[in-house]
Design goal:
The complex is a heterodimer of chains A (about 220) and B (about 220). With about 220 residues, chain A is mainly α. In chain A, about 70% of the residues lie in helices and about 0% in strands. Chain A folds into two domains: about 150 residues, Rna Polymerase Sigma Factor, Chain: A, CATH 1.10.1740.10; about 50 residues, Arc Repressor Mutant, subunit A. Chain A is built from eleven helices and no strands. In chain A, helix 4 crosses helix 5 and helix 9 packs across helix 11. In chain B, about 30% of the residues lie in helices and about 20% in strands. In chain B, a hairpin with a 2-residue loop joins strand 1 and strand 2. Classes of the chains: A mainly alpha (about 220), B alpha+beta (about 220). At the A-B interface, helix 2, helix 5, helix 6, helix 7 and helix 8 of A face helix 1, helix 2, helix 3, helix 4 and helix 5 of B.
Chain lengths: ~220, ~220
């Protein structure tokens, strides 16, 4: 289905390059290179979100699905779900994306971050059978038009964060990743990796300090 | 709903990160969500931790989904109840932020209080068993008996204020307590003090909450 939707022309404004851009995004981050042009774009996948918000555009949804469903599924499998369950929850996450599309605000979170929060909440619901209390929505809510400057600023921060994370030493990055995706506490990570708990804590602390330093 | 500069005692980064990764027990999540509803600072910090998760998701290697996955999801979309557009304060107007109102079923006048003697009242809220969360009502000027804690306790002030050996805690403030803290909280005069208190089951907490109390992305 990839070829079909990659040819979809940009329905909104001048951002016709979004498909190519989006397809590149993981490699760009992985190789640690983010070009100036890309920094100035309003961010990957926002055009598709807008097409869903404005026109309930199923082809825009298909593009998002093609990119994110396999990654959400990977996230769930790393958290311990088997293939069948991970696929089922990934589909629920993507369906939730459709229904909550009107809530998405690109000045507050990147599309990937927003999908991460949906997937995390769904995971808590499915794995632990618990509610996840969410903070009260801010009063300026989803109806207010997001400020383009804020959108751009958020995208630049997101790019910086991705860059900083790609530059972390592999061992530190792996541990932060376990903390997020593994659904494991640090002592459980210790059991699994055989690393002493103190080492894990200091490595994660080091990773977070590095990230923070790079963000300044 | 309140000026963030009023709040002096915030959530720690290890709690915020655990809220973001989803490893906290429900009761702690409730206190965190309630505090974030009142505190722009911690809302922004929580957003930073979510962004770390988002960046990792974006960099995942894709795994194969089944051939009919998209079609199945479109079908699911048609079957799912439409997400109601949330209004900013779903419940009644009052002193409880929305996440707390959801658990109470209303505001402070709707709480099913039970007397503890000395004018003190409490109401246990229904959450998962890993942690227990309750509302406490302390009359203005009253002192709670000196007590220490089993495990870790987190207190969020919703109305009034109290002082203990550590500091003064007013609306929106969070106080952490563990086995080492023996304190005697005294409610300030003028207004009864209402707090939301969560305690983990003894010995559970250390394994559920990673202790990486380091400043992170909180610029």
């Amino acid at each position: 289905m990839g070829t079909i939707y990659a040819e979809e022309s940009g329905a909104i404004g001048p951002r016709v390059s979004y498909a190519a851009y989006a397809g590149r995004s993981t490699r760009v981050i992985g190789s640690g290179q983010v070009s100036v042009n890309e920094m100035l774009e309003q961010g990957p996948w926002i055009a598709q979100m807008e097409r869903i918000q404005i026109a309930q555009d199923q082809s825009a949804f298909a593009e998002l699905f093609q990119h994110f469903a396999p990654r959400v599924k990977a996230f769930l499998m790393k958290s311990g779900a088997n293939d069948t369950l991970a696929e089922e929850i990934a589909q629920e996450v993507m369906a939730t994306l459709w229904h909550k599309a009107h809530m998405f605000d690109p000045s507050r979170a990147s599309v990937a971050t927003w999908i991460f929060t949906i997937a995390r909440n769904r995971k808590i619901d499915a794995f632990r059978k618990q509610r996840r209390p969410e903070p009260e929505d801010l009063t300026w809510g989803p109806e207010a038009e997001p400020d383009q400057e804020d959108v751009l600023a958020l995208q630049q921060e997101t790019d910086k964060l991705a860059q900083a994370m790609s530059e972390l030493p592999q061992k530190q990055r792996e541990l932060v990743e376990r903390a997020y995706f593994g659904d494991l506490s640090h002592s459980e990570i210790a059991e699994e990796t055989g690393l002493p708990l103190g080492t894990i804590k200091s490595r994660i602390r080091l990773a977070l300090e590095r990230l923070r330093h790079t963000m300044k | 709903m309140m000026n963030m500069t009023d709040i002096k005692h915030h959530l720690t980064d290890d709690i915020l990160m655990s809220y973001s990764t989803g490893t906290l027990p429900e009761g702690f999540n409730l206190v965190v969500a309630t505090h974030i509803s009142m505190c722009d600072d911690c809302r922004a910090a929580a957003g930073s931790f979510d962004a770390v998760g988002g960046t990792m998701l974006a960099n995942q290697d894709a795994v194969t989904v089944s051939d009919g996955a998209l079609k199945a999801t479109l079908k699911l979309i048609g079957e799912m109840p439409k997400d109601p557009i949330k209004t900013t304060r779903t419940g009644k107007s009052g002193i409880f932020p929305t996440p707390l109102q959801d658990y109470v079923g209303g505001d402070k006048d709707d709480v099913q209080w039970r007397g503890l003697g000395m004018g003190m009242k409490q109401a246990v809220l229904n959450t998962s068993k890993e942690a227990s969360v309750r509302l406490l009502h302390i009359p203005a000027g009253a002192a709670m008996p000196n007590h220490s804690h089993k495990g870790t306790e987190m207190t969020l002030v919703l109305q009034g204020a109290y002082r203990d050996e550590e500091d003064r805690f007013g609306r929106g403030d969070i106080e952490f307590a563990d086995e080492d803290l023996h304190h005697t909280p005294v409610a300030e005069d003028g207004e009864d003090c209402i707090c939301l208190v969560v305690t983990d089951a003894p010995l559970k907490f250390s394994s559920l909450i990673p202790r990486i109390a380091q400043p992170f992305l909180r610029i």
